Amino acid sequence: MEEFLYEKLDRKVPTRANNHEVLGECLIDAGHEIGCGTAYGSALIKCGETEKQVGSAEKELIHASAINFLAPIRSFIEGDYKTISKERKLLQNKRLDLDAAKTRLKKTRTADARAANLNSSTPLSEEYVTPLSYTLSFLHVRWLKLWAGEVQQAESELRISQSEFDRQAEITRLLLEGISSTHAHHLRCLNDFVDAQAAYYAQSYQYMVNLQKQLGSFPSTFVSNNNQASASLGPGVSVPAPPAGGAPRAGASVGGAQASPLLGELRASSSPRRARVLYDYDAASSSELSLLADEVITVSTVPGMDSDWLMGERGFQKGKVPITYLELLN
Questions:
Q1: Phi-psi region for residue 245, left (φ > 0), alpha (ψ -120 to 50) or beta?
Q2: Which of 308, 228, 230, 231 is nearest to 266 (CA)?
Q3: SS3 143
Q4: What average pLDDT does the segment 263-282 reach?
Q5: Beta-strand (E) ranges in the chain?
Q6: Which of 22, 225, 245, 286 shows the smallest number of beta carbons within 10 Å?
Q7: Is the pLDDT of residue 169 over 50?
Q8: Phi and psi of 163, rounded to 5°?
Q9: What letter would DSSP give residue 236?
Q10: Is residue 258 very low, low, confident or very high in pLDDT (cuts 50, 70, 90)?
Q11: What is the pTM of this model?
């Protein structure tokens, strides 16, 4: 209703934020409330900025579509199309008038032929000739003249109706001949509309790819890891060493020399075991699981996996973890 009133008042509609821009503002506000110094708050702000960029691209698409596609079609519908529809309706009315004139002429000619037949009928016998017969003859002549006038009037109306129909048909034909050029123009407008859509989706895709790269630059401990680990470890993959200067906990099994007793103990139990993480670990590939120090996860062995690795599970996340970063719990 507001847009309708602005249009009638010939005033510009105020610019409003679209859904992407509103979402972006909410994400940015939430990021500032959480703290732009935190990884999550910074990620929210980056997502909000990207959503605002997508919103701006959507506005450009709507603006380009309104100018290059909707405006020409609207102008045609409110202008040329109304004129063509009006002239076609007039042509239909002229055709009905022409049909009515032809029907009337046909009826008058039929009646005139019947009157002529009555005039050529056998005359009365001489014994019946009376003054009344002269009166009837006079009326019959007047009747013939009347029908002759009706025929002339019907023929005149037919000529006028035919002329008006031909004139209206020519006007309609000229208007319809311009439709082909109008179709070509609207086809170009449609191509511009499709090009604007393609540019919008390509730009939005690029924004999201850049956002993915920015989120990937955060520490992996703050990034969701939903990747499933492969069943076996490829050849030539080495186990990461613990952080320099990190001291293992009491009773922890660390290093390749002590990995075998831990692995043997885990295999002997033939069931998953709980283990405490000794150091932070950033996953180096999608098949690994990132770890935080002091968290407790579930570990198990997988046939064919390298002895320096275990399969770790944390909730719905699963991946390979280095055995030197863990200690088994009783």
A1: left
A2: 308
A3: helix
A4: 80
A5: 273-277, 296-300, 309-314, 317-322, 326-328
A6: 245
A7: yes
A8: -65, -45
A9: T
A10: very low
A11: 0.47
Containing H/E element for 258?
A: helix 256-269
pLDDT tens digit sequence for 103-135: 988 887 787 676 666 555 545 445 444 555 555
Q: Assess contact for 57 and 24: CB atoms under 8 A.
A: no
pLDDT at 250: 40
Give the tokens for residue 145: 């003249």
Name the burial class of residue 259, with classes exposed (0-12), middle (13-18) and buried (19+) by CB atoms within 10 angstroms of its CB: buried
Q: Which residue has the tokens 């009133």?
A: 5
Residue at token pair 């909707």:
70
Tokens representing 200?
């919008």
**Total Cβ atoms within 10 A of residue 243:** 13
Contact 324, 242 (CB under 8 A): yes
Name the residue among 254, 315, 255, 313 with its Cα closest to residue 288.
313
At residue 251 the predicted structure's pLDDT band, cuts being 50, 70 and 90, is very low
Mean pLDDT of 200-219: 86
Please tell me the predicted confidence (pLDDT) of residue 233. 39
Beta strand 296-300 with 273-277: parallel, antiparallel or unpaired?
antiparallel
Tokens of 267: 């295999």
Q: Which amino acid is at 92?
A: Q
Nearest Cα residue to 222 out of 40, 36, 33: 40
Q: What are phi and psi of 176, to 5 degrees?
A: -70, -25
The answer to whether 76 touches 186, Cβ cutoff 8 Å, is: yes
Residues facing 297 on adjacent strands: 275
Q: Please state the three-class secondary structure of 49-80 as a single string.
A: HHHHHHHHHHHHHHHHHHHHHHHHHHHHHHCH
Using the structure block, give the residue that is written with the tokens 């393609």.
198
Q: Is the dihedral of CA 299, 303, 305, 308 positive or negative?
A: positive
The residue with tokens 């499933």 is: 228
C-alpha closest to that of 312 among 302, 328, 297 = 297
